[in-house]
User: Fold this.
Amino acid sequence: MLLNQYLFLAALLFAIGVYGVLVRKNGVMVLMSIELILNAVNINLIAFAAYWGTVNPCQPNIECAATAGPVFALFIIAVAAAEVGVGLAIVLMLFRNKKDINIDDMDLMKG
Amino acid sequence: MTQDMLPENIAFAVIAVTMIVSAVRVVTTKNVVHAALWLIGVLAGAAALYILLGSEFLGITQVLVYIGAIVVLFLFGVMLTKAELGSSDDLDNNRVQKIIGAVVAFGLGAFLIIVLGASEFKDRHLDLMGHTTVQLGQTTPQVSDSIFSTYLIPFEAASVLLLAALIGSIVLARKD
Assistant:
């Protein structure tokens, strides 16, 4: 099993997520595409952590560099949860004020 | 048994195909609710990959937080913004922007794959079968020891971030 299998999969998911962010104009759909991007990053982190563990095997009860992978992936999950919470609140407020969540119409800051 | 026929490779192939198909459907489907349901396919595939790589705690957390909480939040968002529950043609930008978006995303994906194919990791083997999960450094005790010693301050910062997000969402969504 090659490390690159995981990295290619993550790169494809990242590109698909970028396509979604660029092409969708519904606010909720853009947030879903951002979730795809964040998941691609997490797959990379865990694949490299496991690879590091196979190169320098960890010992029980001794702190080990490979453990940083899952820890940082957990932080990314926490940040993603916060981002979705605030993002959906913003989308709801846009809907309440403009009766629409088409993000192309949000051009109040355009001069 | 050749290297290609390892059971972990077969499992990886099944999970990868599921994830790619689901991800493509998330960004192309015309129905908002279907997009949220296809997203479950991607997130469950990621959880399965974490289990495959020996990261048990992260796999369970992925199911709990993403599938259990974030997808439900998306469905609430769809409901509260009164999106059309059937198919809708008004989800995507116009054709020109769609083509430009496809070109940019394809270029980015091709660039990443070319770079990865030429990097020093291109022929590194991931010998998961030959190691225990403790050696891989992914077990729950190791992760918890690491969070509550080396990464204690980032962990507390993440708690404050979640509190700020909670308060921020309430302030934004209140009706006054």
Observations:
- The CA atoms of residues 19 and 33 of chain A lie 8 Å apart.
- Chain A has one domain: 3-105.
